[in-house]
Specification:
Radius of gyration: 21 Å
CATH architecture of the domain at 26-61 and 110-250: Alpha-Beta Barrel
Strand order of the largest sheet: 1-2-4-5-6-7-8-9
Number of strands: 9
CATH superfamily of the domain at 26-61 and 110-250: Aldolase class I
CATH topology of the domain at 26-61 and 110-250: TIM Barrel
Shape: globular
Strand content: 15-25%
Helix content: 25-40%
Structural class: alpha/beta
Length: 255
């Protein structure tokens, strides 16, 4: 009887030891967050995301025709959202940009506006898209690097951002040097100078790529996935580690 009890206890302890707990993920409010319209990158979206309890809020960053950094996903979309669809993908001047309203009521944001709001509220983190130059980011957000998550579009930017002490740097699946950088700085990082890539951001639809499956099997790294609007959509079963997904961009999930 004692032997049976010991065997059962051993099985129980082994089972408990092998149980992997799913860790919570950090939510990123995509393009400012949902404010009745998605991808607005607007002041009202930012204010609502803060009120809803988001800690990470993402903005797409573009330059106007007169070289002022502002929040917009692309000019074709912005022109359509603001009633200027006939202008196609033509960039507006900053004065024109500022005078428009998204869907007739939401306020466009400049990088300066974003910087001011994030400097006042030290509980939130700025996630950036489209621009990853450390020079440009430092110029526009000079005191936010310890609260910035930057999507890097080249390994040079990734390395420089890491060196400058940015809070988190996500190496983008849309980087032009993607393949070479993954081979050098993930698979063979010990042979090359520069920091190992520790974070990747990518589309959920790209996870079945054969090369990605190989890297996932061989290397430890963290993932930020876009875009996920239901917790059941997090594809934990696709990875060697069910907790590999640490951040998700979302349009309508709430913290």
């Amino acid at each position: 009887m004692k032997q049976i009890s010991f065997i059962l206890l051993t099985i129980f302890l082994v089972a408990c030891g092998n149980k992997v707990t799913q860790s919570p993920v950090e939510l990123i409010a995509h393009a400012g967050g949902d404010v009745g319209v998605q991808y607005s990158n607007s002041r009202e979206a930012l204010e609502k995301s803060i009120a809803d309890g988001f800690r990470y809020i993402e903005f797409d960053l573009l330059y106007t025709a007169d070289s002022i950094l502002v929040a917009a996903h692309d000019w074709e979309q912005f022109n359509k959202f603001t009633g200027f669809e006939h202008k196609g993908d033509t960039a507006p001047t900053f004065a024109d940009f500022s005078s428009r309203r998204i869907n007739g009521k939401y306020t466009p944001l400049s990088a300066a506006d974003i910087n001011t709001i994030f400097e006042k509220d030290t509980t939130i983190y700025l996630v950036t898209d489209k621009i990853s130059s450390p020079v440009l980011l430092a110029k526009n957000f000079p005191r936010l690097k310890e609260r910035m998550v930057v999507e890097a579009f080249s390994y040079n930017d990734y390395e420089a951002l890491r060196r400058e002490g940015y809070h988190r740097v996500l190496y983008s699946c849309m980087a032009t040097d993607l393949t070479a950088s993954i081979v050098k700085h993930m698979l063979l990082h010990a042979l090359f100078s520069g920091p190992k890539i520790e974070w990747i951001t990518m589309y959920v639809s790209a996870l079945d790529n054969t090369a990605f499956r190989l890297v996932d099997a061989l290397v430890n790294f963290n993932l930020a996935l876009f875009t996920i609007n239901n917790y059941s959509e997090i594809p934990r079963d696709k990875f060697s580690d069910i907790n590999k997904v640490k951040m998700i961009y979302t349009d309508n999930l709430k913290p």
